[in-house]
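Lecture 7 notes: from sequence to structure.

We start with a single chain of 300 residues. Read the sequence below before looking at the structure.
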Amino acid sequence: MSEVHVNVKELHPEVWKLFDRYVHGLIDRRGFLDGVGKYAVGGMTAVGILEALSPKYAEAQQVAPNDPRIKTERVEVKSPQGYGMIRALLARPASSTGKIPAVIVIHENRGLTPHIEDVVRRAAVAGFMAVGPDALTSLGGYPGTDEKGVEMQRQLEQPKMMADFLATARYVKDRPDSTGRLGATGFCFGGGVVNNLAVQLGADLHAAVPFYGGAPRAEDVPKIKAPLLVNLAEDDERINAGYPAYEAALKANRIPFELYKYPGTQHGFHNDTTPRFHKEQAAIAWQRTVAHWNKYLKTT
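Now the structure, written as tokens:
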């Protein structure tokens, strides 16, 4: 018997809340399937709902690995304070011969997925030298499925993982083909990392763009020197709850920032491999991201 087609637009709002908990490791696969069972109506099954919500990486790719506009390579970054070494995807415009600004792209809570690699390539198309580190390097790298990736990333120690990201940021900033101007963006878990990078790097970070990531502690905000562009989903209570205090601290410390909540969006709306993707708002958010980098990184 063939699986009934699942129209994600008709799913109960509680299904989306359960899915958010599942992808962030707050419940396991069984917990999700048990929770959505009561909403599997009209011939749908819980497994069918999960399949409909799962990422479709090949279908959503925007910049192919062999795109002639860019050059890519795999690099290994030494990280003595972290897990010793972290692998990353590096991409830059094929036409550039001199020094260009650098950006670091931080993945979600499942390693360097095909989607985040695609975002790294998009940043290169936009004119930057972009690097996407894989926090799962010490465990063998992104395993090919998000479910396994989430499970693996939970095994890592947060301080060592952060040290790996810091090492990668400094690596790309200090490369001889970099201008020394550094930007950062990240999504979900990676958005929280970008906020943390802004705290820890201080004046060494020149433009930060967190997408729906956890806010840092208010007492750490004075350490931030990078102008911020904060992209939040409208329907994302878990993350948005931390932002009033963050905004107040940014204002109190006179740190330049812009904050946008995108109407009609859920957490993860920029990720075009899942049904939470919002095409129009994601495009606006990315345009603002590139404009932010252009403003603060392409200056002397």
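DSSP finds eleven helices and eight strands in the chain. Keep this in mind for problem set 3.
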